[in-house]
User: What shape does this take?
Amino acid sequence: MTLTFSERFTAWVVDDSPMEAEAVQRVLAPSGDVEIFLDGATLLERISLAPLPDVIVLDWMLPGSSGLEICSFLRLRWDEAELPILLLTARGAKADVVEGLSAGANDYVSKPYAPQELAARVSVLVRLRRAHLRALRAESEVRQRETDYRRLTDNLPDVVSRIDHQHRHLYVSPSVTRLWGLPAEHYLGKTTVELGMPANQVAEWNAAVDAALRGREASMHFDLSSRGGLRHFHSRVVPERDEEGNVVSVLCIARDMTSQVRAEQAMRESEERLRLALEVGKIGTWDSNPQTQEMTCDARAKVLFGLKPEGKVHPDHLFEPLSPEDRERVRTEVDRALAGENGGLFATEYRTPLSADGVERWVSVQGRVFFDEQGKAVRFLGTVRDISEGRRQEEEARQMAEFQEKLVAIVGHDLRNPLSAIQVSAALLARKLGEPSLLRKLHVISTAADRAGHITRDLLDLTQARLGGGIPVRPQPCELHAVIREVAEEHHAAHPERDIRLDLADTAEGVWDPERLAQVVANLLSNALNYSPPGTPVEVSSQRHAEELVLRFHNQGSPIPEELRSRLFAPFKRRPERSAGPKDGLGLGLYIAERIVSSHGGHIAVESAEPQGTTFSVHLPWRVPEGA
Assistant: This one.
């Protein structure tokens, strides 16, 4: 509770005579702020809504309720110290004075009055109230200090106790209860032996207490079992003296060090785990002082840096054997870290020269610079790791991938000419042959050649996507819905038993590559037909937005498993629920479709759930042809 005071006081004057009320106001105005009420009802309404005034000057004779009745009513809630009341009336008989004071008034002034007397009596009542408020404030502060002290002692982690010359406890702080569950009173008057301290610690305890009783401060460590298990304490034992300097008791302050001890133990275990991890990972460590240029390396770091096992190490020793390109690059990266760039973090890779064991290595060096309050680099430490095997594997993988890509390109390119010859020859023979059995065989030849042609085209597109920086597109004005209808008719001819539904109400005039988008539509439509149950429809729709055209390919059937969606557009991937057959490709359809759409600046999204089915959404940026 906080109470504040101002130099001026507040006074409420209640008098049905405006002239009398103003006269009181003139007397009190030099020292106070005066508010006038012409009846008791207005006063009671006001006092329920506003802070209490310092004093009320109340006329006895009021219309409605009299001053005595108002005074008696106010005293039901506030006493004389909280709300001083001065009765003001022309009735001066002793009986009237007694009646007024009995009603709860603090003082009484008879009319006519001397202004100095009225001011003096009001001043006395104001001082009375403010003294009361100061007392309340002081009492509140004392209670708060008591509360704070109790909260401090109740939550103090240290156990504080006072020991007499017979080693008995005179006082124990409440914090002891949290440790052992017994109230502090349980320990009073007892020695540590009587309280059950282990015998091997009693002698050390008694020696520390005796030393303090002789005037010397002592300390000790001891372990005690508690409700939370074994706890570790450090205790200071301090002599307490009287005015003559005689030791009258001993103050023991026992601090629970369990967390610190456990942290130190955990740190030691962590350091051991780190040592083992460095050993298993064949990682070396180094540490340097940028100010003194002193540097230390463990044995493995020296081997990986190509340094001699013996002798001191200087940071410049690491740069000298490097090639000129690596030397300048690594030195620049070190300087940036020492300057505080990237928070002082340092990471680089380079080839080391022949080391003491005659091996040339690739190493990964990582470190961090630590700075003082002025921003000066004071420590630079880190690790070094042999990454030669990883580099070798990466190079082999890169060469293999490059070989595979080139092989695919060569095969795809060289297959196109003989396949074209087969297709043309089959078409010419079909015109001249009339025997049905021969025509069926020509149809098989033509179909196989078409399939091989599609595979060859997919292989060439894969090569362009992965080696050529993306599948090239040649945007031109086109009507995309016409492209979709043409592709849908081709697929319906190949699958007459399936229902392909188109919802393409409006035209879609835009700037795209019609041949490549026909390839996208064909791949997604084939995917929808292949992965939906026979007899179910496949739906193709389009929807135009402000800046894009969205094509949707929907089919029914079981949803795509969640674990496959992240690699759905990867090359050479097919969903496992469809067994490979004569009409299957290489699993490049979705990959090529995604690459073509990406080359247009768009993207493909997938939604697949039970029982809604699967929907592939193609989002294409819409650019209207010039002049349209």
Remarks:
- The CA atoms of residues 28 and 120 lie 10 Å apart.
